[in-house]
Amino acid sequence: MSPARFYLGLAIVLALAILFQWALEWGIPELQAFSALGYTAMAYFAILSIVIYYLSKWLGHHENPFLLLYLTYAVILFKLATSVVIVYLFKRLLHPTTRYFVLPFIIVYVLFTIFETAFMAKSGRLSSQDSISKS
Q1: Rg (CA), the chain
Q2: What is the pLDDT of residue 10?
Q3: Which pLDDT belongs to residue 98?
Q4: How far apart are alpha carbons 121 and 54 in whole angstroms?
Q5: What is the 3 state secondary structure string of 38-58?
Q6: Which one has a higher pLDDT value, 56 or 11?
Q7: For site-directed labelling of 63, which of 5, 54, 96, 127 has its Cα 20 to 30 A away?
Q8: Phi and psi of 19, rounded to 5°?
Q9: Nearest CA among 7, 86, 83 for reference residue 49
């Protein structure tokens, strides 16, 4: 995947996340006080996606095709662990009055996970095509 396509996809995912955030704030007014969690998640996952894109691009051309698979596992574990920490700290510091405060975060998490899975799969396909053409 070219950097232009990646950044276009990232912009689309961010736009969708912002639209969902606004819809949730409008639909569930109690969430307006906790909108910072959703916007923090957008910034965090956008930066993480950029790092993952360049790592997967670099590992996609590596001799060992399993490194991209290992990166996928590491990303899943890292995102899950940091997500739990972010939500826990947010709950601990701001004491939300509703359980629904986590909805924007979950939506952003799912959107970015789908996006990252798509571009990592494309990186994996490109690396397997490279190895086939080298043979």
Answers
A1: 17
A2: 96
A3: 82
A4: 14
A5: HHHHHHHHHHHHHHHHHHHHH
A6: 11
A7: 5
A8: -60, -45
A9: 7
